[in-house]
Amino acid sequence: MVHQISRRTSFDAYREEMARIVSGEYEIDHKSDEFDEIRNYLAAHGSPSDYTLTPAMQEIEAEGVSVIDWRGRKVSM
Q1: pTM of the predicted model, to two decimals?
Q2: Taking burial as the number of CB atoms within 10 A of a residue's CB, which of 8, 19, 33, 70 is the most buried?
Q3: For 28-52, what is each residue's pLDDT tens digit?
């Protein structure tokens, strides 16, 4: 049970920090409206790129991507 709580706390911290980043003076590292181009950018920058978008996410217009270091791990936004 403790393991689940710490995992949830970590996700909460991650979510709060990402929200704080994008609500400030945040600039996208690579601007593109093409999901394939975004995937290629992620792969070239050592970030996970083998994800699958849900059908609903595929309907959203892409703006670009950023790779951010969060607690020693690369995460994409």
Answers
A1: 0.70
A2: 70
A3: 999 999 999 999 999 999 888 898 9
